[in-house]
Amino acid sequence: MLYDLAATAAELAAVQIALAILPIGAIEQHSQHLPIGTDWLSIQALARRVGELCTEWGDVYLLPALPYSLSQCHGPGLGNVWLRPETLAAVLRDVVLSLKREGIHRIAVLNGHGGNFVLDAEIRELNASHPELVVLNVTSRGFRRGGGSQDIHAGAGETSRMLALHPELVHGPPPDYIPAGLGPEFLDYAYMAQISPTGIWGSPSEASAQAGAKALEEAAQRLAQRIRHAFEEIERQRAQ
Ligand SMILES: [Zn+2]
After folding, report:
1. Measured in angstroms, how far is the CA atom of residue 157 from the centroid of ligand 1?
2. For residue 23, how far is its CA from the centre of ligand 1 (angstroms)?
3. Which of 2, 31, 163, 174 is deepest in the core (most CB within 10 A)?
């Protein structure tokens, strides 16, 4: 079964949760055509589908997506909200350790925002200092994207997914924009607004609801399998 916040404590206590899923969203500008909650809405939906698929091998506790993470690269802009890296690491640690206290030791983090570099460092530390825990981030660089290496932000991938999930929230996009010769590492230096006048890095003109639905389902299948195989491998290693 998939348990979310609609479950009662008694319902959760009556089962053995095999896996908790913690999605990480972000709140930041997505140009003029997508809502600031795009990353949060997308990862929430993807995590639910991954959770459904994972119930094939056990009961799953789906946590709500954390709305905030590391959106500093978008800089000043109405609606942008971010945590400092150390705050995000501390929130992750506290959530994981509170799950551990309740006997939930397998936790999959689903990261919906590409810039959350601090997650892997904190997850490695959690795994190293709590041997009974297994925390996996199967989406280190965000679960991406489907539109190729220049589909960085508010482009074909994100716009397609939102057309599939919440078409009522998608407006007509401004023109495609790809900064010549730059890679996403440039966002460690400059704000998005200094790189792209519209906040787009990609080609939203190529988006479609059909492509979004297909990409979401393929990502969910792939991630559920990755999670399953990782836990099987860990069991195998521990049995040796
Ligand atoms: Zn986004």
Report:
1. 9
2. 14
3. 31
Q: What are the residue ranges of helices labelled H in 166-208?
A: 192-195
Token pair, residue 161, equals: 């997914």
Residues 235 and 229: their CA atoms lie apart, in Å, by 10
Q: How confident is the model at residue 24 (pLDDT cuts 50, 70, 90)?
A: very high
**Alpha carbon of 50 to ligand 1 centroid (Å):** 19
Token pair for residue 98? 């509170």
Helix or strand or coil: residue 87?
helix
Q: What is the mean pLDDT of the chain?
A: 93
15 Cα distance to chain centroid: 26
pLDDT in tens, 145-171: 455 678 999 999 999 999 999 999 999
The alpha carbon of 38 and the centre of ligand 1 are apart by a number of angstroms equal to 6
Span from the CA of 154 to the centroid of ligand 1 (angstroms): 6
Amino acid at 147: G
Provide the CA 128 distance to its chain's centre, in angstroms.
Answer: 23
Provide the 10 A C-beta neighbour count for residue 99: 20
Query: Measured between alpha carbons, how far is 18 from 13 in angstroms, rounded to an integer?
Result: 13
